[in-house]
């Protein structure tokens, strides 16, 4: 078996007195779709944000797409460490609950921003790629629309196109449909399934159990900063997943 695309070893994070992640270990293979479930406050967002160092953990080792980052004991990366962090980030994309589009840029401009400013792709080539990606998420005709004129589902699809534009090896999704009205969720989940079908490695925090059941290879269940269960999705939704999981599933 290949080295996992994402491997987290001994990841811990406190916010003051509160231990939010406690020695979390996790491995995700290339092409796997892993859904992270768990009650609110269990540390799911902090885990995802730690994986690309949007949040700096207190300790642990991250290996993401071949980039190894060990969190320094004093919290300060040296020059080599900073370089590793930058390389790691370039191989990942993140889709947020609140979309995080630039309001003063059109859909197309949002999608190509990183291509032009970070990857230095010539403008004409970036525009062509951006239009392809907008077509892929079903928004070819919205290229020149500003976010304020888009529905939540459309905004999230633009955000996914923006993530894909950076050609990441892994995409992290943090509750991508939680801010959406129920009737807009399916269009976003449909795009996510399509991306999953291309073989993209995906880590998805969500409460959409149907998506987890149908699209996930594995489910990771977190509670109080600990991975309580990490198993194939079929086992998680099966009858023998244990009392705590059954209780959680009955609530949703
Ligand atoms: N920046 C922060 N400062 C202080 N506490 C935080 C911060 N971010 C998250 N927390 C706390 O850490 C815990 C885990 O939060 P989070 O990772 O957002 O959980 P989840 O995504 O599972 O709901 C919660 O108790 C939350 O209030
Ligand atoms: Mg969260």
TrEMBL record:
Principal location class: membrane
Ranges where the ABC transporter domain occurs: 6-249
Membrane topology: Peripheral membrane protein
Family annotation (CDD domains): ABC_HisP_GlnQ
Keywords: ATP-binding, Cell inner membrane, Cell membrane, Membrane, Nucleotide-binding, Transport
Subcellular location: Cell inner membrane
Pfam families: ABC_tran
Superkingdom classification of source: Bacteria
Gene Ontology terms, MF aspect: ATP binding
Family: Belongs to the ABC transporter superfamily.
Protein name: Amino acid ABC transporter ATP-binding protein
Organism listed in the record: Pseudomonas typographi
